[in-house]
Amino acid sequence: MKNIEEFLEVFDIPEEEALAALIGSFGPPQASGIRGYWRKHSHYGNDAPSTEIIKGIYSSNDYRCHICGSQKRLSIDHNDGNANNHAVENLKLLCFSCNRGKSSKPTQDKSHKLKIYRATMELYSELGQFPTQKQIRQRAGVSQIGGATYFLDYMKARLEKNT
Ligand SMILES: [Zn+2]
Questions:
Q1: Whole-prediction pTM value?
Q2: Ligand 1 centroid vs 126 CA: distance in angstroms?
Q3: Taking the domains of the chain in order of start, what are their residue ranges?
Q4: Most exposed among 98, 109, 113, 124, judged by the fewest C-beta atoms under 10 Å?
């Protein structure tokens, strides 16, 4: 939790707001939210199941992953890999780790920023000043700052303000 506390301090985020964001990110979504998401994204086709069916998939499976039985971070998976096939028998609950094992989609954007954040905080505490982009890239093991440039500028402003 030390890293999380440090992050909240650097970014000046009240605990209440951080908790609300975590609940939003990790709490199970409402059935209407899942249905809305499927309807909005065309590769899920036009016949998203009703909220009653979606709720039923959670409750009839006792909120458990159909592979390992875990109740942690569940989502609904199209078992045959066809996002259009909303037949009830094709919709299975998967926990985060079984889902990740099944999918090859990387969560690259988030882990890229995380690497840069970690490297920057380490270097900042070692050097006593904000590191250069080159130092950050080397420590983070990334070839470019890329989409984290604005994030990095903001960290610099926050850290230098706090000293
Ligand atoms: Zn599982």
A1: 0.67
A2: 40
A3: 28-102, 108-162
A4: 109
